[in-house]
Amino acid sequence: MISDTHIHTSYSSDCETHMEDMIRTGIDRGLKIMCFTEHMDKDYPLPPDAKDGDPGFFVDTEAYHKGYLAMKEKYAGKIDLLFGIELGLQPHIVDWNKNYVNQHDFDYIIGSAHTIDHRDPYFPEFYEGRSEREAYEQYFEEALRDILLFDDFDSFGHLDYIVRYGPNKNKCYSYKAYSDHIDPILRTLIEKGIALEVNAGGYRNGLGVPNPDKDVILRYKELGGELITVGSDAHTTENLAKNLDRIEDLLIECGFKNHVIYIGRKPVFYPLG
Ligand SMILES: [Zn+2]
Ligand SMILES: [Zn+2]
């Protein structure tokens, strides 16, 4: 793949890699297009041990934009850089998100459900007092609710994010086992013209597959979905563009001929293979 459209840098609070280091690595790896998607999770529920003044996943968007523009100019002709955001979706911040999105000229917005009922399933405590199945179902229900309440974004990030962190990860998880919960999400995305992201994070979180995996991608296609975005979700140079070739092969296997890159919030089709 010559593009990676899900990249974090030190403008995200959980990442220490400087943007310029990411860009240099991208050029070395043959990337032609990189889209930065820093974390913006308004009202992210901080864990109890968070330090006072911890901003959570809140990006200084002005500083980020300024830094981006400087890099775009510096590396013009060497690589195309795009200005994106990974926007955390929660039911109670719909108005805030609407306003935020309108205030900035993003090329690309990933909508991601990182929390359920003010808690992040990333933390093991989340699974106390509920079965894994209950947790996963609750995640899908809240994700659907998020998308129905707010849809001003381009691609839905890592659809089964929770499976990276469940007690048994994807051992007991499959599209088939959760189709009643996954189908309404896929149908809603298609109806609203929102893309499905295939995110390489699953490979490095011990799933052996991307988020989501083949059966979900096939179902999306079967239901009429045509918009697929692809990203590494890298927070380090090591993970930049990693496993994207595997995703490309998987998408071709699933019958897709193109993937999509958003530029100025408009989908542009790029051939696979
Ligand atoms: Zn995410
Ligand atoms: Zn991310």
Largest sheet: 7 strands, parallel
* Strand order across the largest sheet: 1-2-3-4-5-6-7
Oligomer: single chain
Mean pLDDT: 97
Number of domains: 1
Distance between the termini: 8 Å
- Could you give me the name of the CATH homologous superfamily? Metal-dependent hydrolases
CATH class: Alpha Beta
Question: Given the helix and strand composition, which structural class is it?
Answer: alpha/beta
Strand percent estimate? 15-25%
Helix content: 25-40%
Would you mind describing this structure in some detail?
The chain has helices at residues 19-28, 61-74, 94-103, 132-149, 179-192, 201-204, 214-222, 244-253, and strands at 3-7, 33-40, 80-88, 108-112, 155-156, 195-199, 228-231, 258-263, 266-271. The chain has 273 residues and is α/β, with parallel strands linked by helices. It has one domain: Metal-dependent hydrolases (TIM Barrel, Alpha-Beta Barrel). The protein is globular. The structure holds zinc ion (2 copies). One zinc ion (ZN) binds at residues 86, 112, 114, 157-158. One zinc ion (ZN) is lined by residues 6, 8, 86, 233.
